[in-house]
Amino acid sequence: MDVVRRPVILGVCFALGLVLAAAGAPLAASMATGQQAATPAPVSTQLSPAEMEVFLLQASMSRIRDAGAGVTASQRATLSDGRLTHDAHIQTVDIARPVFQAGAKTELNFKDTYRYNIAGYRLARLVGLETVPMSVERNVNGKAASVTWWVDDVLMDEKERMRKSTSGPNPGRTTSQLQVMLVWDELIQNKDRNRGNIVWTKDWTMWLIDHTRAFRLGKDLMKPETLTRCERGLFERLKALTDESIAEAVGPSLTKLEREALLERRDRIVTILSDRIAKLGEDVVLFTLRGPG
Ligand SMILES: Nc1ncnc2c1ncn2[C@@H]1O[C@H](COP(=O)(O)OP(=O)(O)O)[C@@H](O)[C@H]1O
Ligand SMILES: [Mg+2]
Fold first, then answer.
1. Ligand 1 pocket, Cβ-based, cut-off 6 angstroms
2. 29, 125 in Cβ contact below 8 A?
């Protein structure tokens, strides 16, 4: 595990992504209207999103090594700006294939690209999902890459959680976080939420990483039957999404077609959840996700 050496943020690395939205305009605006973030920050930090972005974009890189898991041979690097030292994940994958054989499944219009890590972070922030770590585009050794804040204090990934058959000290919160993930993955049509792409920090906060195989053009949901509940703030923000707000948030990391498909899926998600609310009542379907402790 890498070490943050700047005292003001010592020990709070795992919460940094959660705090990012706190200073962001979209979140600030929706907070003013009483909406809550889908995943509240457990701990605060003094590193603002703007500072973190500058750090990821400009800090010098050393100790570039294998990220340690996964299938795309992505890397982990240690970044330092002279005051702060923290690790980042580096992903340069950028593949597009008309037809791709993923195990037993054939996927058309297959893409696996670092660009979607950036889109994932930016869109997550827009919908108030604060547990997708910050990701920026940066040239690394001559290649375009996503450079993503490394999530510290990882307790285990989902694979290990399943193996240990544990839900931590607050199983209800763990389930709620997974339900947020199900909605999120349908929104972005993530084809690769394998168990290595979910990591749990020591405070039992779920972090969602690796969105390089998301943002498909399909308009149908993958598993609509899994959409049974949703976080209140997330539901409100989903309803408020527009092509303009998405385009402004994600910039060139998504194409117009990718944004259009996303909005179609949003409509389907909102219809399913609204129907359930009409049938079962808001208190059964919507929940407020609280921070750890
Ligand atoms: N931001 C991050 N913070 C902590 N660990 C990460 C982060 N990004 C990736 N990892 C670790 O590196 C592994 C490989 O990265 P990933 O983005 O999943 O690439 P792949 O496409 O090869 O699966 C992940 O399974 C996880 O263990
Ligand atoms: Mg992965």
1. 67-72, 74, 89, 91, 133, 148, 150-151, 196-197, 209-210, 212
2. no
What pTM was computed for the model? 0.86
Report the percentage of the chain scoring pLDDT > 90: 78
Digit-coded pLDDT (tens) for 126-181: 999 999 999 999 999 999 999 999 999 999 999 999 999 999 999 999 999 999 99
For residue range 24-44, list pLDDT tens digits in order. Answer: 323 223 333 334 455 544 333
Rounded CA-CA distance 159/162 in Å is 5
Cβ atoms of 216 and 109 within 8 Å: the answer is yes
Nearest to 210 by CA among 110, 99, 119: 119
Residue with tokens 């898991």, as numbered in its chain? 69
The mean pLDDT value for 196-206 works out to 97
Sorted by where each begins, the domain ranges of the chain are 7-287
The three-state secondary structure class of 113 is: strand
Q: Are 38 and 231 in contact (CB under 8 A)?
A: yes
DSSP 127-171: TT---S--EEEEEETTEEEEEEEPP-SEEEEHHHHHHHT---S-H
Write the residue with the smallest CA distance to atom 14 of ligand 1: 70
Average pLDDT over residues 236-252: 98
- 10 Å CB burial of residue 220 (0-12, 13-18, 19+) is exposed
Q: Which of 179, 205, 177 is nearest to 273 (CA)?
A: 179
